[in-house]
Amino acid sequence: MSTSNDHGLSEFGYRQSLDRSIGKFASFAAGVSYISILTGTFQLFYFGFGTGGPAYWWSWPMVFVGQIAVALCFAELAARYPVAGSVYNWSKRLAGPTTSWLAGWMMFTASVVTLAGVVLAYQVTLPQLWSGFQLVGDGSGAHDFGISAVIWGAVLILFTTLVNAFGVKLMARINSIGVFIELIAAVLLVVILAVNVVRGPGVFVDTHGLGEGHVGGYAGVFLVAAIASAYVMYGFDTASSLGEETVNPRRTAPVAILRAVIASFVIGGLILLFAIMAAPDLSDPRLGTSSGGLQLIVLQVLGGPLGKVFLGCIVVAITVCALAVHTAGIRLMFAMARDNALPFGVRLARINAKTGTPVVPAILIGAVAVAILLVNIGTPQIFTAVTSVAVVMIYLAYLLVTVPMLVKRLRGGWSGRDAGGHFSLGRLGLPVNVVAVLWGAGMAVNLAWPREQIYGGGALRWMALIFIGIVAAIGLAWFRLRGRHRLGTLPEHQADRGDQLVDELS
């Protein structure tokens, strides 16, 4: 281990240029806020329930089993490679330059699309707090909902851009406070819903007859509804993406990743469980609409004033979720630019002397996310379409880590134990890795499948495949023709030779 003050960063050829000030709770908060229990469950409950009925709840534990396998693999990687831009740098050490570059490119693009998807959640919640938050029309017009959502989304993106530009300390402080509020609100919500249940657990085998006439019966419907759960439990790698800004990252990041996933599964699952059991009327058609959903159940069960207090907490959760997503995207862009793996790498990797953070990526990511919102402003399925594309790209980026990791295990190139005594799966590594790969591949295909319920009719059905195909093709064309010939750590980010020698001797 390094004895220098860079926490072993020089081992990977980099010098410490980011502000290392994130502690254990802030690291955990980064992973939790990206997953964001309240944001995800409240944003897409209407879709899951409206598509699959009460029985859609079983998609929650299904997604958890798959994602915890991925998280366990990532925890091992976080202990060994505590470097910014987690997925990109992990893949770089497991596979060739083209694979690792594509992993970073897909994850970066997914982060931008995810930011655009997360900020849309303001529109799902704010008008239910006060009708004046419906900025366009009364919400009944064909495009009232979507246009208002884009305006609110742009406002939130402006906020996350400014916070990230001012530095990681401000971001971590706001994020930690927001996560603390979110966790307290989520636990209280579980308790209040639990004491107001009006039906037994038998409701979770009720499909509302939604599988009738559908290809594949209810199983086909269930796979569509699963997007509501799949959208929540990802982004846990953010805790490691901030590794260069975390104190003792080799020990802190792996624990933060696993705690984030497990806490989200338990609390989020209980919210959904008791909400369905406490809903006054499960046949209410508003539960399956974006203007009703889980927010409506909370207002009905808790009553107006108290219900709106919890909706206010959801707004806080959405805010810090967007902040965490934006932060993760910035670190990934910085990590790739530092290796000169992106156009204009010198500018993108430049650290502001006053704020200690990359400012140009913060502004660029915010601007592109707003552009994505504007392009989709007339799409009726704007919520599900944008979020589905984001989830598919995340799953593909994760596969570009878990597949090379599995190949390395099978070839005997991955040691079962970490020499530093840090987190390791040992003999469980191989079966867990296999589950992670099979799960990721299966869900990527499921979510990208051209379904009208998710993407709309006509050419929009192919939105995910077309968008992802274009992004991958353009990126790979640039990398193969030009980018790969320029790879190499920029001189201003290279570790001092003295620090490297310390690591080699340790």
TrEMBL record:
Principal localisation: membrane
Protein's membrane topology: Multi-pass membrane protein
Record flagged with keyword Transmembrane: yes
Pfam name, any one: AA_permease_2
Cellular compartments annotated: Membrane
Keywords: Membrane, Transmembrane, Transmembrane helix, Transport
InterPro entries: AA/rel_permease1
Superkingdom, taxonomy of origin: Bacteria
TM annotation in the entry: 25-49, 55-79, 100-125, 145-167, 179-198, 218-236, 257-279, 309-334, 355-376, 382-407, 428-449, 461-479
Protein name: Amino acid permease
Originating organism: Amycolatopsis tucumanensis
